[in-house]
Amino acid sequence: MQSLLIPTLIMVVVAIGVALAARAVSRRAAASSRPATPAVDPVEVARSAAARLTEDQHRRLYALIAQGQAMAAIKLYYEATGEGLRSARDAVGALAAHPQPYRSPAAEPVAADPDEDDVPQRFPYRYRAIASKGDVTREVSSNMLNDEIYGRIRTLARSGDTEAAANALTRHSDISLKQAREFIALLDD
Question: What are phi and psi of 137, to 5 degrees?
């Protein structure tokens, strides 16, 4: 009787293992057969999120993002729009990754021109862009930069196209290409 007990226990353990493995494989197959959710463009999420804010809310939200207070920024967006917490989190994340300038509701949306970066526009204010990593900090101040242009430069840098980002930064400021490359290197994460 004892000689059959150990092989029987081994067979039971193997059967349970096979059953669990089959269950895991069937779950994976069911998960892969589900249609994937459509990808959401984070730039569009940022644009629509910025459009839901008043000028004061927009300014306060970006101040919180700049200070690294993500939870406070999410709470502000949540209270301002009445959207759910998950959509508020996604909106604040998109706004942080793709900065959007404030546009008044009466302002007409401007069609994006693919050659828009080639001819820098001068603005009536000086825009300050600051990048730091560790104890190294660089600042670019220019009246040819704004939130939208700087957001595109950051997106280029984060996507790995650092040379295009540096060229765009030199076009929209009075710094050399070497200084622009040093600034862009601080944006890489």
Answer: -130, 135
More confident residue, 143 or 11: 11
SS3 call for 133: strand
Cα dihedral 144/138/185/50 (nearest 10) = -50
Axis-axis angle for helices 147-158, 177-187 (nearest 10): 70
| DSSP E strand stretches across 42-108 | none
For 72-106, write each residue's pLDDT tens digit. Answer: 999 999 999 888 899 999 999 999 998 888 887 76
- Is 101 in a helix, a strand, or coil? coil
Sorted by where each begins, the domain ranges of the chain are 42-97, 116-187
Residue 171's nearest CA partner among 151, 153, 148 is 153
Eight-class DSSP state of 118 = G
Residues contacting 53, CB < 8 A, separation 6+ = 61, 77, 80, 81, 102
Cα angle value 62/153/97 (rounded, 5°) = 40
Bridge partners (DSSP) of residue 138 are 131
